[in-house]
Fold this sequence. Notes:
Strand 1, helix 1 (13-25) and strand 2 (29-33) form a beta-alpha-beta unit. This protein starts with a strand and ends with a helix. Helices cover 48% and strands 13% of the residues. Strands 2-1-3-4-5 form a 5-stranded parallel β-sheet, sandwiched between helices. A 5-stranded parallel β-sheet has the order 7-8-11-6-12. The longest helix is centred in the last third of the chain and has 24 residues, at 439-462. By secondary structure, the protein is of the alpha/beta class.
Amino acid sequence: MKKLTILAADDDSTHREMLRTLLREWGYAVGEAVDGEQAVALCREQSFDLVLMDVRMPKKTGLEALKEIKAHNPALPVLIMTAFSDVAAAVEAIKSGAYDYLTKPLDFEKLKVVLRNVFAHVGLIEENASLSRSLAATEAHSDMVGRSAAMSALWEMLRTIAPTDATVLITGESGTGKELVARAVHAASRRAQGPFVAVNCAALTESLLASELFGHEKGAFTGADKKHEGYFLKANGGTIFLDEIGEMPLSMQVKLLRVIQEREVLSVGGNTAVPVDVRIIAATNRDLAQEVDAGNFRQDLYYRLNVVTLALPPLRERADDIPLLAQHFMNRFASKNNKRIKGFTPGAMDRLVRYAWPGNVRELENVIERASILLLGEHISERELPERLKTPEQGDALADALETDCPTLDDVERAVILKTLKRFGGNKTEAAKALGITRKTLHAKLNKYQGAQDDAEEDGAAS
């Protein structure tokens, strides 16, 4: 595997030599620049995966060099190194396109973590390819991309249940990919060579649903001018996928329960039941247990369907998968639209990762398709993203901190910590791991911030 190459730009030869030694020990190839002007020139002449650049340099400052480098290659991530007293310059660097900044003297363990996160974030590590190779070779997996803990657990469960004939209930919000999972279960099962028939229960009226599911005889009702084979018979020997099962009327639920129990279907207007050998996979974005309590769904049918449950997490709960999914969709639409797209700018990827994605994977797919169509250059930037992704979420402490005229390091650190905690649902262990600090350190910092807030509230009350 080709080594990732980092350009270390610093006029301090001792510091530059130290960086060179460390980075090589960590497995990176290293280029060097003695000032901002040389850094810009090297980025135009050579290919680097990341630039690690000091702010104070002769000929061109780090900020001047940053702007020229980003103008030449918007996708190249730049990390700024700055003295503790230059926080304002660091914030300006972030606004000018820097990926992040680090204060001198450098915390080498933090640098190591930041570098690893940057390369994972912008997709320079081929995790998607290795993940795909580890899965069964089937087209059904093509859009099921992810390396998060939630997706790993899902794949483990899928591999376990797929070879069986167990009835499966797939739950999850709209747009999470429930049909993709159903197709993957079918493709990895012993029925893979048989048909896969998908039925959207919400798209059919009650009168049509019985006819479409079970078929009808000629003359069974007005307009039935010939015998019709239903979806269950079409799926014989394979799998039937009943999407949006929670929308099925109660009268139809009784008939479906009979099919599951007896393994035979009776067509509308028919007198003789026909045996069927079908695996049933159902999906819903509703809480069926609550629907049972409310009297909208039969309890006996719920238990019949809920033999094995696969719960799909919303995209906002597996943000680690967003860069991989975005890259996957980008490659697909680049090919479809005959465009040469190299990747995403760090700013665009940051917007994708920070957005809440109420429409889940389907919404992300649509956003990337739109961006690939509008793109005139080679890197998808913030310009190609919809306005809703460009506006920071209300209550985004990090965005608020960076917009402050002169934020302190404490302001920025507090904002980053609170944002990370929010991302992990308040789980301090996971947040500390992501921040590269111990849980004890995280507790100490949170206590410090709480103490400062209490003092401020007391001062306000006294005045």
